[in-house]
Amino acid sequence: MFYEECILERMNLEKPQSLKSTTFWKEEIEKAGIQESLSFFNDVITEKKAPHPRSGYHLALQDIPLDNKKCDIYHTDQDEGGLKISDRTFHRIFIHIKE
Q: Are 78 and 94 in contact (CB under 8 A)?
């Protein structure tokens, strides 16, 4: 968090209330009991819109309650059927916050 705070300070910006860490989202995924349904990841992007269809993200889970909001989870290394894509090693998920 220190790094993010330094950047925000240099840019004369206040810390947004919605800024949440990868650790936070991993804990939310564990609370929802869906961690076994996702391939390994160590990076999380969140948006209030779905990723672009050609972004390389694949819909992994739909309508999952995370942080008291309905979310879809997309993965770079997992196809829509839940299978690991063998030549992909980005280890990133995209959480589309729908509410």
A: no
